[in-house]
């Protein structure tokens, strides 16, 4: 990076979806509270009818929900001097600036798409439209970084 360049943000910079993180963990907590209240409300006769297999199945479904919410909430986009890291769920993509051709955020889209020189297109779940104007600003910043660093 040239000395004294005017980058729009100090690198490294991370974008994470606030709305998805808040809602994801809020829904997990609400579901946990609801299930606990229902279980407490059962009579001892009904609780005695629930088999160990049913309890394990319920626990596995709950664990699956937590794993899915965790995948969504760990999504992020990290801009560094040497490139861009895009984490979508449990998949991580490390991109060099020269690989990125364009960043598109069509009106009504839930997140931007990154067009790559390989012809592929990847979504950037770390920037979500639900975050409002901050998402548009993040895309403008990324476009500037692509122009200046590639």
Automatic annotation (TrEMBL):
It holds the Pfam family bPH_6. Keywords: Membrane, Transmembrane, Transmembrane helix. The chain crosses the membrane at residues 20-40. It comes from the Bacteria. Residues 74-143 form the Low molecular weight protein antigen 6 PH domain. This is PH domain-containing protein. It comes from Nocardioides turkmenicus. The lineage of its organism: Bacteria, Bacillati, Actinomycetota, Actinomycetes, Propionibacteriales.
